[in-house]
Predict the structure.
Amino acid sequence: MDDLPIRWRRGFSRVAAGDWPHSDSWSRVMAATKVLIVDDEPQARRALRIALIARGFEVTDARSGEQALESLRHETPDVILLDLKMPGIGGIETCRSIRECSEVPIIIVSARKTQQEKVEALESGADDYVTKPLGIEELVARIHAVIRRPSVGAHVRIVRLESVEIDLESHEVKRGENIDHLTSKEFKLLYYFLQNAGKVVSHRRLLQAAWGPDYGNEVEYLRVFINQLRKKIEPDPSRPKYILTAPSSGYRFALSAKALGKS
């Protein structure tokens, strides 16, 4: 397990001492947010717990992937902070196992920085990937971003794409008798596509819509999630009809008026 970075230790020491710049808006948004920390390093878990509790989060932790999966059988958090390098079930396998039973947002927190490892984590079902060292303010902002979901207009609930039916309230995707669920990031991307149906949307705009204003160049992240979204909503993902690639610029959502149903 990676040692806790000095930058984290310093930041968390200030939090433990009560030196934290609170804001009313953050307190209101985060007061009821439940975070599950999954990390085999006791010091890392303790430091994160202190910092997040000081910000109004409700925090539980698990020292292994196995313990995290057992915890999810009894309680569902709002977001999971998951380390990759753990004994037993590693972070990637834990992420895949969580996705088999839950769509709770998952943020990978790791010192591993290679593009291949980041893509593997995202393909395993993670919603975001942050590398150590990072400031606690950035981590809180990432948590805020993954749990924030766009509101759906009251007049539109169901989107039909041939044999695929998407429920914008439950985030369920029905294909015949099969039901799948959209993750937080997949839903944000889909919702942004719906808001901009027929228009070419740049990579930067899609990244910022789903991940926040600090993103814009992580095109490989976007490709991973676009592929996952296509697998869930396209009648034939290998020959997409709705999420179309605009070469060198972005994507276009080809949606007809008939696709929109009434609630």
